[in-house]
Amino acid sequence: MICPKGKISKARRDKRRAQTWKIALPGLVACANCGEYCQPHRVCKACGTYKRRDILKLAE
Q: Does the pLDDT value for residue 37 go beyond 90?
């Protein structure tokens, strides 16, 4: 059988594993109506529009 070359410490093992499962930042685009940054294909939280249509009625 093959023997391991040496003990890999928990810190070294976890550092290696942490690089694989990084959480990527969501892509942000500027809102066509107000210019505020928001996620694509979502209602803008600043002005409440989606595809230049008013979806949410926000208190101003």
A: yes
Burial 18-49 (b: 16+ CB within 10 A, else e): eeeeeeeeeeeeebebeeeebeeeebbeebbb
CA 15 from chain center: how many Å? 21
Whole-model pTM: value is 0.53
**Cross-strand partners of 38:** 29
Which residues lie closer than 8 Å to 38 by C-beta, 6 or more apart?
28, 29, 31, 44, 45, 46
DSSP per residue, 29-51: EE-TTT--EE-TTS--TTT-EET
The kind and range of the H/E element at 53 are strand 53-54
pLDDT tier at 60 (50, 70, 90 boundaries)?
low
